[in-house]
Amino acid sequence: MTGVHPIHTGLHNFVLRSSSPTGLPLDFKLWPQYLKQRHNYATHIVGKWHLGFARKEYTPTYRGFDSHVGYWGGSEYYYNHTFCDVDGVCGHDFRHNMDVITNASVVYSTDYFTDRCLHIIDQHNTSQPMFLYVPYQAVHSSGVANILELPPKYTDMFSHISSADRQTFAAIAYSMDASIGAVMEALHNKHMLNNSIVIFISDNGGDPREFM
């Protein structure tokens, strides 16, 4: 979001915990702020924030985004959207801008994020450029127990894989792939891909432990 190596932001030692009294320092201007101020972009984030929420000024809609649907912390459960971190701080963390979403406990987060992206694209006025940032929860594990939650509709698709954990992981990855495909199709149908840059970034490499 800053274009600056983490060692220069003070956040290089470890990820931000939910109990952290700080966040990404406010003197850093983020990518959506540049795009909005210099080029009048519409800016949206769908998914994981994890750059701090100790004060409202740290949250997405105060740092250049017109809207945010997703969660502020580092990880949570895909269905009930709650999380307890290693410090024992627990809570429901699923939001639309500054408001808590309370009616999504039966919706798999990847599916929820897909629907939100499709809504943004459908409502967008194509005379204005748009920055859509989609940091999926997938394929991150859930909660402090590092469990994996899969969408049931893909349960049988990977039965040929001998490891049950890897079956689940494959289903989680496939659901993300399907979501990306739906978003790309929506952009195509609205003729927005004719002048778009699509960037895929992974924030981590593969975890060597089998349960991940």
Please explain how this structure is put together.
This protein has 212 residues and is α/β, with parallel strands linked by helices. It has three helices and seven strands. The protein has one domain: Alkaline Phosphatase, subunit A (3-Layer(aba) Sandwich). The strands form two sheets. A five-stranded mixed β-sheet has the order 6-5-2-1-7, sandwiched between helices. Strands 3-4 form a two-stranded antiparallel ribbon. Strand 5 and strand 6 form a beta hairpin. The chain is globular. The mean pLDDT is 90. It comes from Medioppia subpectinata. This is Sulfatase N-terminal domain-containing protein. Residues 2-207 form the Sulfatase N-terminal domain.
Key structural traits:
Alkaline Phosphatase, subunit A; single chain; sulfuric ester hydrolase activity; ARSB; alpha/beta; 3 helices; Sulfatase_N; 212 residues
User: How many separate domains make up the residues?
Assistant: 1
State the end-to-end CA separation: 26 Å
**Secondary structural class:** alpha/beta
CATH topology, which one? Alkaline Phosphatase, subunit A
Low-confidence stretches: none
CATH superfamily: Alkaline Phosphatase, subunit A
Could you spell the SSE succession in H and E letters?
HEEEEEEHEH
3D shape: globular
- Rg value: 18 Å
Number-wise, the strands total 7
Residue-averaged pLDDT: 90
Which band does the percent of strand residues land in?
5-15%
Number of helices: 3
Give the biggest sheet: 5 strands, mixed
- Order the strands across the largest sheet as they lie in space: 6-5-2-1-7
Q: Supply the CATH architecture.
A: 3-Layer(aba) Sandwich
Helix amount, in percent?
A: 10-25%
